[in-house]
Amino acid sequence: MSALTFSLKTQPSQRVDMTAITPDNLAGKTISEIAAITLPVGKDNLRIDSLFDISGDDANEIVIEKSASRLDYIGNNMKTGRITVEGDVGSYFGYHMRKGELVLNGNAADFAASGMAGGLIQIHGNVGDYLASAIVGDKKGMKGGTVIITGNAGERVGDQMRRGIILIEGNVGSYCASRMLAGTIGVLGTVGEYVGYGMRRGTLLLTQKPKMHATLQDCGTHTLPFLSLMFKSFQVLPSKFATINKNRVQRYAGDIANDGKGEILVLL
Amino acid sequence: MIINGVQIDDTFAEAFNMRGTRVIITAQNHKWAYNAANAMTGFATSVIGCGVEAGIERELTADETPDGRPGVAILMFAMGSAVLMKQLETRMGQCILTCPTAAAFSGIEGGDRINLGKNLRFFGDGFQISKQFGGKRYWRVPVMDGEFMTEESTGMVRAVGGGNFLVLAESQPQALAACEAAIEAMKEIPNVIMPFPGGVVRSGSKVGSKYKALFASTNDAFCPTLKGITNTQLSPEIESVMEIVIDGLTDADIRKATYVGIAAACALGSANGIKRISAGNYGGKLGQFQFHLHEIMNDESLKGAA
Q: CB–CB of B69 and A230 under 8 A?
C-alpha cells in the first residue's frame, strides 16, 4: 500500500473546498470512484481528477502535493489517519478536526485549527490570523488536540479557545489569547500588543515579558509543579518545546476585566 | 509439612472480594511524601473500624513518578466501591491537600475511574485551574505553600483482602522477630500491603461474642494465656501468636506475599523458637478465596519470588 497522493495540476482560478479529501471520506473507495468525486471550486463543482493527478491506494495516509494557497478546508472534520501537505494551503486548515494527524510543509492562511477538537496538527511554516479561533457564529475556538507551528502566527491566536495545546516556535501578532476560555498556548518568540485581551481562563506560556495592558496583574515569581508535568507531556512532541526543562515563572493573571482567571506565565 | 523445624498447618486463609485503588503521592522529597502517605494510610488497619485498609506499597524514585519528584505508592482497599470512594476523598482532603508540597496522581490506569481530586478542586473557591495533558485531567488548587496539584481520578479494581498467616512461637520476642523478618521480605512484593501496625496484628478475632453488641471477639483458641480453660489450638510450648494480614490487587499477589512471608519466618526456624505457622479462616463459608498453606509452600513457581 502506498500513500494516496493528490498532486495539484495547475493553480486553481477559484478557491477549492477540500472537505471531501479526508481518510474517513475516502476509505474503501477505488481510484475511479475518488476521481469522480466533485469539489466545490468557486461557484462550480469540479471532479477531483480535473484538479489533481491521483496515485496510490492507502486512504489512511493521504498526501497532497504542489498544494496552493487557494485550497481551503483541508482536513475538515477529519476523524482518522494522516494528511501530509507539501506547499501552502488556504484557510480553515484542520477545521473542526476530530482525530488523526495533519502535517503541513508550507504556510497556512487564516483560521487554521478553528474548532479543532482533537488530533495533532503540525505546520512547518507560518500561519495567518485567527489560529485555533472561533469563526463568526461559533461560540468556541479550538476545543482539544495539539497544534505545533514552527514559524510565526498572525493576530488573534486562540481567540475563544476552549481546550487543547498550541505551541508556536516563532513570533505571534497582536491580541494573542484574546477571549481565551481555557487551554494552553506556548510562544517561544515575541507576542504583539494586547496579549490576553479579554482572557477568561487558560494559560499562555511565554519566554519573554510582553507589553501588557492595565487589566493584567503581576502575581509574582513562582516554581509551579504542574509545569514539570506539562513539559513532560511535551517531550513526546516534535517541537522545540520538548526541550524546556525549567518550571520557574513570573505569573500574571488576567484579564481582570473579564473574570481574571487566565494566566500569562513568563519563563525565567 | 515441616520447614526448618517449623510445622506448617494443613489449613487455609480465607479471603474476601474487595475494591482496591492505588494512589501515587509525590512531594519535594521522600520525607514529605512519607509524611503525606503516612497520614493518608493512618487509622486504616481494618475495614471493621476504619472503613478502609490502606498501606504504603513502596517508595518511588523521581523518574518513576508523573511529576518527576520523589514519591510513594499507596494501596487502599474497602469492602465496597462507595465506601472506598468516600474514604479516598476524605483522606485526600485531610491528608494530601493539607501536606506541604504533596501532590497526588492515579496509580491504576485501567479499572473504573473514581474521584481523586475531582471534588477537592472546590477548595480553590473559583481560583482552581484545570489542565489536561496526555488525555488526563489535573487540577491546580492555589494553597498557601503555592499550588496543590492532583489528578482528577484514579482507577478502582476488584481486589482481594484478608489473606493471612499466623506465627506461633515460644516467646513474644521470638514471634515478633519472625513477623518482622516476614514483613521485610513481603514489602518487596508489589501490589500488596500489610495494613496493621508494622504489618503485624496481635488481636486476631473469631466471629461472634458472648456480648450481643459485638459481632467479633478475641480468638481465644489462639490466646496463650487461656490454654488451660478454652478449646485451645496451642500446644504447651507456644507462648505467643501473631498474625500478618495481606490485602492485594489479585489473589496471585497474595499467594506470592504469603509464600515469601512464611519462608522468611521459617528461615529463623525452630532454633529461634518459631514452632508453627497456621492461618485464619471461617470454615471456608464466608470468603471467596482460600489460600491453602501447604499448596502455596509447595508451589514451585513461587520459589523465585523470595
A: no
Contacts of B128 in chain A (CB under 8 A): none
pTM to 2 decimal places: 0.92
What whole-number distance in Å separates Cα of residue B194 and Cα of residue B45? 8
Predicted complex ipTM: 0.91
From A149, A81, A84, A78, select the one nearest A115 (Cα to Cα): A78
Give me the domain span that covers residue B181.
2-14+160-305
Residue B124 is placed in which grid cell? 480553590
* Burial of B185 from C-beta contacts in 10 A (0-12 / 13-18 / 19+): buried
Residues B182 and B291 in one domain: yes
Q: pLDDT tens string for chain B (306 positions)?
A: 999 999 999 999 999 999 999 999 999 999 999 999 999 999 999 998 899 999 999 999 999 999 999 999 999 999 999 999 999 999 999 999 999 999 999 999 989 999 999 999 999 999 999 999 988 999 999 999 999 999 999 999 999 999 999 999 999 999 999 999 999 999 999 999 999 999 999 999 998 999 999 988 999 999 999 999 999 999 999 999 999 999 999 999 999 999 999 999 999 999 999 999 999 988 888 899 999 999 999 998 888 765
**CATH number of the domain to which B248 belongs:** 3.30.70.520
Among residues B125, B157, B189, which one ends one of the domains?
A: B157
Rg (CA), chain B: 21
Half-sphere exposure of B13 (CA within 13 A, CB side): 31
Q: Which residue is it, cell 498453606?
A: B293
User: What are the residues of chain A with a beta carbon less than 8 Å away from any beta carbon of chain B?
Assistant: 163, 182, 184, 201, 203, 222-226, 228-230, 232-233, 261, 263
Q: Are residues B122 and B237 in the same domain?
A: no
The residues with which A267 forms a beta bridge, in sequence order, are A249
Interface test with B, best of A224, A229, A230, A231 (most B CBs within 10 A): A229
Do residues A77 and A98 lie in contact, with contact meaning Cβ atoms separated by under 8 Å?
A: yes
In sequence order, the β-bridge partners of residue B164 are B245
Candidate from B103, B127, B131 with C-beta closest to A230: B131
Q: What DSSP string runs through B238-274?
A: --EEEEEEEEESSHHHHHHHHHHHHHHHHHHTGGGTE
Task: Show residues of chain A in contact with B101, CB under 8 Å.
Answer: 225
CB B242 within 8 A of CB B173: no
Are residues A230 and B133, on separate chains, in Cβ contact within 8 Å? yes
